[in-house]
Amino acid sequence: MMPQNPSRLFTLIAALCLALSPIASAIDLKVSTPKSAIRPGESTELHVIAANPTGALQTGIEVNFRMPSGFTGSQSLATPALSRGSAGLTTDEEVGWNIAQLAPGQIAHLRIMVTASSSPALPDGTAGPFEFASTVGGNADATAAQSITVDSQHVLDGAFSLETGGAATGEPSAAVLTYGNAAPSRNPASG
């Protein structure tokens, strides 16, 4: 049986195919770090790249993220500069990076030094999920994420020495205890 209006059926099928086909992002968003595990008080750098892989000028680009609980940061490089957020990024702070436009093939860079809290120290295994989301012209576009884990395992290594030179029996002696953290980081990137 043939529908009464075949052109209407064709239009409906075409619209359904477009709705089900994946839509490519206007911006490629990537985030990386040289260290995926840091100790309390230690820092590492997050490197965020926004690139325009299309053949068209993209405008109204904004990349947003929130500093995870227990982590602070500071902008070490942003081209262009951050549009929302303080110079010293604090825990749970909303941060915006407004990139007015990217020409075809153009890349924008953001680098943030991230530090795990040492006071109070974050528990071992705490993961800081750094999640970035971009919008282009006010529409959701791309996402990228990087996790940094707190490695607070400490192994103490020490030496004990007793100074006995000249102390008579029953007199106090001086003892010296020297210790330090001898645990190598579990981060495979560290040497």
Task: State the main characteristics.
mainly beta; 1 helix; 191 residues
In summary, what is this structure?
The protein has 1 helix and 12 strands; from the N terminus they run H-E-E-E-E-E-E-E-E-E-E-E-E. It is mainly beta and 191 residues long. The chain is elongated and about 110 Å long.
N-C termini distance? 73 Å
H and E order:
HEEEEEEEEEEEE
Chain oligomer state: single chain
| DSSP summary: helix tally | 1
SS-derived structural category: mainly beta
Helix content: under 10%
Note down, in words, how this protein is organized.
- The protein is elongated.
- With 191 residues, the chain is mainly β.
- Strand 9 and strand 10 form a beta hairpin.
- 8% of the residues lie in helices and 49% in strands.
- The protein contains one helix and twelve strands.
- A five-stranded antiparallel sheet has the order 1-3-8-5-6, with no helix packed on it. It has a five-stranded mixed sheet with strand order 2-10-9-4-7, with no helix packed on it. A two-stranded antiparallel ribbon has the order 11-12.
Task: Give the helix/strand layout.
Blueprint: H1 6-20, E1 28-32, E2 37-38, E3 43-51, E4 58-66, E5 71-79, E6 88-89, E7 94-102, E8 107-116, E9 127-136, E10 139-150, E11 156-163, E12 174-181
